Amino acid sequence: MSGPLAAGAPKPECDVAIVGGGIMGLALAYHLALRGVTDVVVLERGYLASGASGRNGGGIRMQWSTETNIRLMRESVELCKRFAQELGVNVWLRQGGYLFLASSDGERARMEQNVALQNRFGVPTRMLLPDEARQIVPDLAPGSFVAACFNPRDGILFPWPFLYGYANQAAARGVEIHTACEVRTIEPGPRGFRLTTSKGALTAQRVVDAAGAWSPAVARLVGVSLPNRPHRHEILATQPLKPFLGPMVSVLRSGLYFSQSMRGEIVTGITVEDGLSERVNMGSRLVFLTTLAREITRVMPRLAQVRVLRQWAGPYDVTPDGNPIVGEAPGVPGFYLACGFVGHGFMMAPVVSKYLGEWLAGGAEPEFLQRWRLARFAEGDLHREDMIIG
Ligand SMILES: Cc1cc2nc3c(=O)[nH]c(=O)nc-3n(C[C@H](O)[C@H](O)[C@H](O)COP(=O)(O)OP(=O)(O)OC[C@H]3O[C@@H](n4cnc5c(N)ncnc54)[C@H](O)[C@@H]3O)c2cc1C
After folding, report:
1. In the chain, where are the structural domains located?
2. Which of 99, 106, 248, 303 is the most exposed place for a label (fewest CB within 10 A)?
């Protein structure tokens, strides 16, 4: 195959135009095409994976604090396991588990509550004493945490082949994918939406806003106001080390997380406050390096010797309750939202795109989308997710 990208201008008419060629837009395009909706055009302003989808840590986990997210992510991990076979690309999936560390009794109590909920929905997370956690990761500093929880079925994968797997399979089924194609205006009209782009105009019966941290600007083009805002999130990769780290480790209090890739690098990030603004900022900062270095060497002193190879940043697409915004925009029939995935959109894409694709292909609206509707913010009907890291 020559690659997933279409040449020239987008075709003048289509059924579904998807704005954004990140994991969400491409996975949705694939699931639509799989169900026979092939008259689909993906419009991406930059290159594929230029947004958060090409900048993330590749973590996938079932450990969440709400029933919806636990159920969905349990299914998503299963879909990830079948990805290589079904989409024909090796995504370097490694199920080494996620080990969360609690630093106080309050955090331990919160953890116990979440673990009980996860167990109730079939996720085999278990609480561990510090010594038990150190049997899984012997290099953790004694005294650096008071309790831990571990689910051996969580894991990591390599984001780029994952995204290209969806892109290739969508294109093979007839989806047009355009890069360097910015959507500039969207006008609803009696015969569909009229879009103008940097590569020409087109008409679409339906439009999906899958523009991640840029989705509020895209929604504004049709007069819809969204509450999600970008938050810079920084991350780095070190020189490769001999394999020594099984799970992804995360410290709840600081938002530190680190895992070892299949190539041996330590991939790690941490929360550094940056404020929410209208603008996406992907610049790297020294304060991130120093904050991370202090925290990671407190938890695992042997990493003090390791060299950093590369540091970068991407946008978290943050909503007020930590949950996504997915569904038809109120007042604009045919305009759909698939955004607000905070710091976990990569792992959610397989399951969310599957159900959203089924619905947009004529199936029933999945019931969990009720909880992710835009109107919940105005109604105050929020179910906060608190297992967000980084
Ligand atoms: C550092 C970091 C680490 C992360 N770690 C994880 C992790 O371990 N696990 C996990 O599940 N998630 C993680 N995430 C979050 C995850 O990457 C995102 O939730 C996910 O990639 C969002 O995908 P998306 O398709 O919604 O958005 P994006 O990938 O940002 O795609 C949106 C696209 O829309 C395009 N666009 C914007 N405006 C326009 C326009 N007007 N016209 C055309 N195109 C436009 C952009 O160029 C962009 O490519 C992390 C994120 C970051 C930044």
Report:
1. 1-94+156-228+319-390, 95-155+232-314
2. 106
The amino acid at residue 26 is L
Dist. CA 230 → ligand 1 center (Å): 10
Q: What percent of the chain shows pLDDT beyond 90?
A: 94
Tell me, what amino acid is at 81?
K
Q: Please, are residues 314 and 51 in contact by the beta-carbon 8 Å criterion?
A: yes
Ligand 1 atom nearest the C-alpha of 346 is: 11
Atom of ligand 1 nearest to the CA of 24: 25
Cα 272 to middle of ligand 1, angstroms = 19
Pocket of ligand 1 (CB under 6 A): 19-25, 43-46, 50-53, 55-59, 182-183, 210-214, 218, 233, 235, 269, 314-316, 339, 341, 343-347, 390
Q: What is the signed CA dihedral for 217, 220, 225, 228, rounded to 10 degrees?
A: -10
> Ligand 1 centre from 136 Cα, in Å?
32
Instruction: Quote the longest CA-to-CA distance of the chain.
Output: 66
Tell me if 53 sits within 8 A of 159, measured CB to CB.
yes
pLDDT tens for residues 264-285?
A: 999 999 989 887 678 899 999 9
- CB atoms closer than 10 angstroms to residue 325: 27
CA of 211, closest atom in ligand 1: 34
Atom 9 of ligand 1: nearest residue by CA position: 59
Q: What is the pLDDT of residues 282-302, one digit of tens each?
A: 999 999 999 999 999 999 999
CA distance linking residue 284 with residue 269, whole number of Å: 12
- State residue 1's pLDDT score: 47
Reduce the DSSP state of residue 184 to 3 states and report it: strand
Cα–ligand 1 centroid distance for 315 (angstroms): 7
Q: Which CATH number among 3.30.420.40, 1.10.40.50, 3.30.9.10, 3.90.1720.10 corresponds to the domain 95-155+232-314?
A: 3.30.9.10
